[in-house]
Amino acid sequence: MEEGNNSGVIEFELHSLSGPPELQLFYFSFFTLFYLSIVLGNHLIVLRIISDPVLHTPMYFLLSILSLTDVCLSTFAIPKMIVDFLMEHKTISFEGCMAQIFFLHAFAVGEMMLLVAMAYDRYVAICQPLHYAAIMSVHKCTGLMVGSWVIGVLHAGSQLVFIANLPFCGLNKLDSFFCDLPLVVKLACIDTYVLQILLLSYNIVLAMSSFVLLMISYLVILVTVRHSSSADMAKAGSTLTAHVTVVTLFFGPCIFIYAWPSDNFPADKVLSIFYTVFTPLLNPLIYALRNKEVISAM
How many C-alpha atoms does 6 have within 13 Å on its Cβ side? Predict the structure, then answer.
């Protein structure tokens, strides 16, 4: 990283949502409100799950970890973006940019793995209900949580190995409100075409394989309960609807951005805002408020 920092670029210019001062003030108020809602809403769910013994089950344990991950996923960039709305020149240091890339990939991949763990939990609960307590033990849930975070950190570290020491020159403008892998790699002073293909292919394969695995697990659950009672079918359908909605909202923007990376594609910026601002707020709402036990505990 020190070599990259000595290559001529000590900071990057961020070009996010622009406009006159009145519009910038509106953005500041709007995203501040959303960020506070994300932090307070997710922490409320976590505290409610901790304080209510009825919710001390593997499903709600994983949901509480998902809520904490959503807070982290929004915190890596939103506070910086909010402050930048009050600044005339929006910049970020080289080290700060590398840190944003690391935390973005660590939390995003960690959340992917948590969604896979939650799908596994629902598969065991619906398809093997008699063995659910034995399979989803405390040790198993803890292992799923730690494993998700470890995979996220290892993935993020592998990204920095390739880009931290790239030479950067005079081009240091990012058309985004945070540093992301496809945009930063393109600013290097050397030909990074092969590196871009490798990194983007790696991220797309990881996201697509996780998404396909989740869809297969949901399909297996539907096939398993197709001959069950109407009440079981309705309960499974409601659970899977929430899961599929969250998975689609999370994976859709990520796959689109990495499959069609472009500095001049306006939708990229909108999708970046969506999965860092709106998705962390929608996830607990979709999971928690569709659940009668959580609503009753609230």
Answer: 3
